[in-house]
């Protein structure tokens, strides 16, 4: 009989504790801790290269925008471009994996992965139209970060660190409804 060892997956992070610490740092709201988490992700990227999970990369880009925004170092126009690039990359990269040989509309792909349609419309406007207001870019960033937290980060943690209460979920739904972020609102 041969001794079979379970297959090991090589990852860029040292262990579960480092992964958890980075996730908490990214979503804590403290720009100093967020920057530390971003620095850690940069180290992961240097080790892991193109194998870096797409959701980690997108989260880092969006958090980097929030850190720059809170630093007051960039002008409004520069922040719009920064948020815009991160949002365009997010929509393109997330939906790209669902594309088949036949081109499928982004709105349909977004529905399949539960990304709000107005985020796809925002991406379209950023790419092909007039630049939107900074407030809308910030809101898009917050919605996408929440989507990433729920669909990627929480699943990696097994929902142990960041389960939302029903009250928080209802509050989030109410905020989205009151923000009026349908297809026409941001134009």
UniProtKB/TrEMBL annotation:
A GO biological process held by the record: maturation of LSU-rRNA
Region annotated Disordered, chain positions: 163-187
GO molecular function terms noted in the UniProt entry: endonuclease activity
One GO cellular component term noted in the UniProt record for this chain: preribosome, large subunit precursor
Pfam family, one: Las1
Signal sequence segment: none
Acidic residues: compositionally biased ranges: 163-174
Positions in coiled-coil regions: none
InterPro entries: Las1
Protein name as it appears in the record: LAS1L protein
UniProt organism field: Rhinopomastus cyanomelas
